[in-house]
Structure formats: C-alpha cells, structure tokens
Specification:
- The protein folds into two domains: 53-74 and 132-338, no CATH class; 80-130 and 347-468, Cytochrome Bc1 Complex, Chain D, domain 2.
- It is mainly alpha-helical.
- It is globular.
- The protein has helices at 2-31, 48-73, 106-109, 114-120, 144-154, 201-205, 211-220, 246-249, 297-306, 314-320, 327-338, 362-371, 439-450, 456-468, and strands at 80-85, 91-93, 259-261, 273-275, 391-392, 403-405, 408-410, 416-417.
- The chain has 14 helices and eight strands.
- The termini are far apart.
C-alpha cells in the first residue's frame, strides 16, 4: 500500500509538471509572430473572396516596395546601345546599371579583399540576390506583354490579382522571340514574327516538323494546372484558370524573363528567385535546372510538370490537378521538339565558335583575347557553345553579410550551372535570378567576384565580344 501510494504521488507530480510545461510552452508559442516553418504547404483553403479582397488591396503597396528596391539598386533609364540590337531588332540596353554605394568606385572596390568589402558593407546592392516581386508569396509571374498576347489569342488570362512583374520591359528579351531550328536552318525564323500558341502552332509548323515533334510542341503549348493558376479556390487569378503552359514562360522556345521561386529550398525566405532560361541549344546541354543538375531535357520536362509547377509539394499538386505526363510518349515528344531549338545566327563566328578574324572588329577581337585570357571567362564558358556543362559555386557571399531583403534571405547561392553564352545578347537579364540587367553589369560582377582587375577599356571590349556571340 505504501509503495502504491508513492507511485500515485509520483505520477500526479509528473502530470502537474507536464501541465505546467504545456502552459509555459503555450505562452512561449503565443509570443512568437509565426508558427514553426513546415516543409509542407497548408491544404486548407481560406474563403476566396476574402483572400482576393485582402491581397488585391495590398497589391499597390507590395509593388511599391519592390519597385523602390529596384530603383535603389539600379539605374532603370532607357539608354539603348548604339549599333547593336537583338535578333529581331529590339534595342539592347547599354551601360552598367548597378548603383555603387555612396563614395565607392569600381576601381577602389576591385583593390579591396572580399572580407574588407563585407566588413565595410560596400558590396553593391544590385549584386545581391534579387527577391521575387513578393517573396513571401512567390509563384509564377509574367510580363504584361506576354499576358496581353496570350489573352488575345487564347482567352486565357495570366494576370495575378496580388502582384505584377517588376523588371521593366526594356531589360527583357524581345517579344515575340524568333525560333530557329537545327533541322531547318535554311528557314531562318520559323515563327514568322508571331507568338506561337495553341491558336496557331499547327498552321506555322505543319509540314516543317515530324509528327512526334508536332505533338511535343502541342503539349508544350497546352495549359496545365499550376500553383497560382488552377481551378480551385486556392489560386491567384481572379477567375478559375486552366493553368499555364511551358511556353508561357519559355515564349517561342526562348524566354520572356518570367520569374518564379525554386521549389527545392525551404523555408520560404531562403528560396531563390529563378529567371526563366532560354531553351535554345538544349541539345548541346547536359545539365538542366539552374541548381538541380537534372541530367536530360526529359527529366527537366517531367520535373517541371510534377514538382516545379506546385512549389515542389506533391500534396498540393494532387489537390490542384497535377498533369502526370506519360514518359515514353508525351515527355519524349516534348523533349524531341525542345532539342531542335537552335541558337540565333552568329555570322561572325567560325566553325569553332570563335571570331573569324576578317569579320571581327578590333574591339571584338580584343574582347575575345580577354575572354580567353585575363578575364578567365573561358575557364567555364568554353566554345563553340560557351559552356562546360558543369556547375560552379562563385561564393559571392564572401562579399556581404546575410541579410533579409523584402522577405528574402540574401545568403549563399550555392552551385549554379554554367549557362551557354551563345546568343547571350538576346536573353537579358542575367545570372540565374536576373539580378544583372545588362552585359555591362555582368562583366562588372564577375570582374569583382573573380578578382580579374580589368581596366575600364577592357570591360568595354569584353562586352562588345559577348554581343557578337
């Protein structure tokens, strides 16, 4: 009896201690601003009209904050480069647009060590990772010119009620982009200056593609449910949406600069903005996805449909209508079309991908010598397509302290694949998140991060060479 009483007392004490701990835990938890981060998104829907009213009402303030960030980081003025355009004639923006910290110069910065730049807070803010227009929310967001043309042709509306695209059109690729095929180089631009959609693809490509390629193109143009654009109440389009198509971001097999967040990082503030890469030249690439290192274009295509469309969350994907493509036919057909998308013509390059001396200007030839020498560009970007099909970590975080920027934690980028530089003048902005608006910005970034100590004249010559690729 005495022993049993002790057991009862001990149990009661444990219960009281547990209750006390529970109350304390509730008090501590109640003091937190947010619940603990989870790898999973909530499947519980809030009332759509409540969410629509709240988020559409906040849109102006969200975009004001983002545009103020861009204005503080960059010179967004319209200053086209003289004598050079993209393939269909759109002007290329000229000059370094990243703003320097007060009192700093490029020449002074390149003489400082990364640690010194970090300690003094002198790393240009335009070289920091770029947040999504609304980073805590994220999701696919499209430039207005793409939204308008898709709606005109197909009736689909890719407008988001909670945010707009942020980077001005002058810093984005030309629209519609030309399409060049490895199988029919004699035809030149097979798009005929039109945005290819379900409305016109058959008219444009019947008789040029084989049946598998034609079917692959149809699927690349077909909208499927996506995180922000779907038929459920948990969406960011005012009306229920059929979804998005691969070629909504990769317009005409190239890019329109559309932005998203990578699906393979948690929590949300550590996710990276991803700027849509061009699909031109995927036949010579061996890695796909800026950081994922997928090994085939078929892997990439299937991954995008099953995961990236839904922020890497299979539970949400099932709820919203994931499109399970059949690998042996549909994915293969989509891959076959993508693999015949060619780079734009570069008439000054020889069969080895270098300048044909009689065709190159003195500045271009000087830039080429720098590219293969002092600037160290060719270490990663080898001709003829100017990629090594590998991944590299620039460790840019050596130059700055981790910091929260508009809901995004600017920290390490990690390994990034080497993007091909063929046709690079046609596909601004640059780097995986689009933080570099011009080729001039890109040269300044790598000059500082790699410590190559280029002179102002050498930087200009290198830009001129890159525009010839």
């Amino acid at each position: 009896m005495h022993r049993g009483w002790k057991v009862v007392v001990a149990v009661a004490a444990l219960v009281v201690m547990g209750m006390t701990a529970g109350v304390l835990g509730m008090q501590v938890q109640g003091a937190k601003a947010d619940p603990p981060a989870s790898s999973y998104l909530s499947v519980n829907e809030d009332d759509f009209r409540t969410i629509f009213s709240k988020m559409s009402g906040a849109k102006a303030q969200v975009m004001k904050r983002q545009m103020e960030l861009l204005g503080a980081r960059y010179d967004l003025g319209d200053r086209p480069a003289a004598g050079v355009t993209m393939s269909r004639g759109k002007p290329i923006q000229d000059g370094v647009r990243v703003k320097l910290p007060a009192g700093a110069t490029w020449e002074a910065l390149e003489k400082m060590s990364p640690a010194e730049i970090r300690e003094k807070g002198l790393f240009p803010s335009g070289f920091l990772p770029l947040p999504h227009p609304n980073h805590p929310e994220g999701g696919m967001v499209f430039p207005r010119f793409l939204i308008d043309e898709v709606k005109k042709q197909t009736g689909r509306d890719l407008t988001r009620f909670d945010l707009d695209f942020d980077i001005p059109d002058r810093f984005l690729p030309e629209f519609p982009a030309p399409i060049y095929l490895t199988t029919r180089p004699d035809l030149g631009d097979v798009s005929r200056g039109r945005l290819v959609t379900t409305d016109n693809y058959y008219e444009l490509f019947n008789g040029i593609l084989n049946p598998k390629q034609l079917e692959g193109l149809r699927l690349l143009l077909t909208p499927f449910a996506q995180q922000q654009f779907n038929l459920t109440a948990d969406r960011r389009s005012e009306r229920p949406s059929l979804g998005v198509a691969c070629f909504d971001c990769h317009q005409n097999g190239s890019t329109n600069g559309a932005a998203h967040l990578v699906g393979d990082i948690r929590p949300q503030e550590f996710r990276h903005r991803i700027e849509t890469p061009t699909l031109r030249g995927v036949n010579i690439q061996r890695l796909f996805g800026s950081q994922r290192a997928l090994k085939t274009v078929e892997d990439f295509t299937e991954f995008e449909q099953r995961a990236a469309y839904f922020d890497g969350d299979p539970v949400i994907a099932t709820k919203k209508g994931v499109n399970m493509l059949e690998r042996g036919s549909q994915v293969h057909d989509m891959g076959e079309f993508q693999e015949i998308l060619d780079f734009p013509p570069a008439p000054k390059l020889d069969v080895f991908g270098k300048l044909d001396p009689p065709k190159g200007t003195p500045a271009e030839l000087r830039g080429q010598a720098l590219f293969f020498g002092k600037a160290q560009c060719a270490t990663c970007h080898a001709p003829p397509y100017y990629t090594d099909n590998s991944m590299h970590d620039l460790k840019a975080e050596r130059f700055y302290r981790p910091q929260l920027v508009n809901g995004m934690m600017a920290s390490a980028d990690g390994p990034i694949k080497t993007f091909p530089l063929r046709g690079i003048k046609d596909t601004p902005p640059y780097l995986h998140d689009g933080r570099l608006l011009t080729l001039d910005d890109t040269v300044e970034f790598f000059n500082l991060v790699l410590g190559t100590r280029l002179t102002p004249e050498e930087k200009k010559d290198l830009v001129v060479f890159l525009r010839a690729l």
